[in-house]
Amino acid sequence: RFNARGVFILLLLSGERNFGVRLNKLYLTRVPMDLPIFTGNHADLLILVFHKIITCGHHRLQPLFDCILTIIVNISPYLKQMCMVSASKLMHLLEVNVF
Asked: From 15, 16, 67, 90, which residue has the greatest number of CB atoms within 10 Å?
């Protein structure tokens, strides 16, 4: 349930312009998760976490995949750049037809 709440909160926030714009802020902290090392912004982090959830997450999270796709669609107009790592992970999701 906690995962679903977090995704739904992000879904609500992703509809706000300010949220999308602020995702462009440089991300400097290391996440205590098994994510690839990257140099980028908060949007990159969000995409990497979504990739991890979709490719390695529990099957019970599958109903959240549509919400995750909607979050990515909502924030996409505000993103100024994307690091190669997150762009590659996003392409991987499209290639394996997860959505």
From this structure: 90
* Pairing, β 26-27 against β 40-41: antiparallel
Instruction: Determine the Cα–Cα distance for residues 82 and 88; give it in Å rounded to an integer.
Output: 10
pTM over 0.85: yes
pLDDT in tens, 13-37: 999 999 999 999 999 888 777 888 8
Distance, CA of 49 to CA of 2 (rounded, Å)? 15
Radius of gyration for the chain, computed over Cα atoms and rounded to the nearest angstrom: 13
One DSSP character per residue, 57-72 reads S-GGGGGGHHHHHHHH
Exposed e or buried b per residue across 6-31, where buried means at least 16 C-beta atoms within 10 angstroms of its C-beta: ebeebbebbeeeebbeebbeebeeee
Query: Tens digits of per-residue pLDDT, 40-62?
Result: 999 999 999 999 988 887 788 88
Query: Could you give the angle at which helices 2-14 and 65-75 cross, rounded to 10 degrees?
Result: 30
